[in-house]
């Protein structure tokens, strides 16, 4: 089943890339494996997916230990509390969900010296939802400027999760605002030395819209691994 799912998601990414005159290699499929067993990750890895996303620190810890023989690039994409930053800093290659300076500082301070700098995206609350984490769009630049100066972190871009269950036109508008915000960071004179190239947006239900808007990482869970309980 995972094999067919991967083929289908790859096909969708290919089609969406072609339709938006983009190279298919400009879009990374991040396999979101939260709540799924390590065996599913190993299966997907053998089929060519090497980037996996986890939302819970305990799951990241357990699965990365079980699968330490595989050359997996681990992305942490869930809400991150201060008391868990050290664990994430020692395991993850990417964190997509940084939304305050305190967390970024801790990740930088706690990043082990023998590892490459941690890649981070700022999570933006693009639809200003009371229930969602993420920095407000108008506060993104200030946070980016502070994060860009931290030594053991590489500021790579932005991550957004638009409102669920809304018309496609609304999702499209949210993605477009995120793309515009990323371009503002890319063009900012004080961020020219930051390697900003990443727009993490699009999930199972809306990856086509995200790719059309310029997404470079689509985070796909249920359409690869099946519905979660
Ligand atoms: C669960 C999750 C996903 C994957 O969602 P699907 O709809 O299952 O593809 C993507 N991003 C984040 C931040 C998630 O928590």
Sum up the structure in keywords.
8 strands; 229 residues; single chain; alpha/beta; binds pyridoxal-5'-phosphate; TIM Barrel; globular
What can you see in these coordinates?
The chain has helices spanning 2-19, 38-46, 57-66, 85-91, 101-110, 140-147, 168-187, 207-213, 222-225; strands spanning 28-32, 51-54, 73-76, 94-98, 118-124, 153-160, 198-200, 217-220. The protein is an alpha/beta fold and 229 residues long. The chain has one domain (2-225): TIM Barrel (Alpha-Beta Barrel). An eight-stranded parallel beta sheet has the order 7-6-5-4-3-2-1-8. Helix 4 (85-91) links the parallel strand 3 and strand 4. Helix 4 (85-91) crosses helix 5 (101-110). The chain is globular and about 45 Å long. The mean pLDDT is 98. The structure holds pyridoxal-5'-phosphate (PLP). Pyridoxal-5'-phosphate binds next to strand 8 and helix 9. Residues 32, 34, 55, 77, 161, 203-205, 219-223 line the site of pyridoxal-5'-phosphate.
């Amino acid at each position: 089943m995972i094999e067919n799912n991967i083929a289908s998601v790859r096909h969708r990414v290919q089609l969406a890339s072609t339709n938006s005159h983009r190279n298919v290699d400009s879009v990374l499929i991040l396999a979101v494996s939260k709540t799924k067993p390590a065996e599913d990750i190993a299966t997907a890895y053998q089929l060519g997916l090497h980037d996996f996303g986890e939302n819970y620190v305990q799951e990241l810890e357990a699965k990365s230990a079980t699968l330490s023989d595989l050359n997996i690039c681990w992305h942490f994409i869930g809400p991150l509390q201060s008391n868990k930053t050290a664990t994430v800093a020692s395991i993850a290659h990417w964190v997509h969900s940084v939304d305050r300076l305190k967390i970024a500082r801790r990740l930088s301070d706690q990043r082990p010296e023998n590892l490459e700098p941690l890649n981070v995206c700022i999570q933006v609350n693009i639809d200003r939802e009371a229930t969602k984490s993420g920095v407000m769009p108008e506060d993104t630049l200030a946070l980016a400027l502070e994060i860009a100066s931290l030594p053991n972190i590489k500021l790579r871009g932005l991550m957004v999760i638009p409102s669920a269950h809304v018309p496609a036109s609304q999702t499209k508008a949210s993605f477009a605002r995120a793309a515009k915000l990323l371009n503002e960071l890319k063009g900012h004179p004080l961020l020219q030395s930051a390697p900003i190239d990443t727009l993490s947006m699009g999930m199972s239900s809306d990856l086509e819209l995200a790719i059309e808007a310029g997404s470079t990482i689509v985070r796909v869970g249920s359409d690869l691994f099946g519905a979660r309980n």
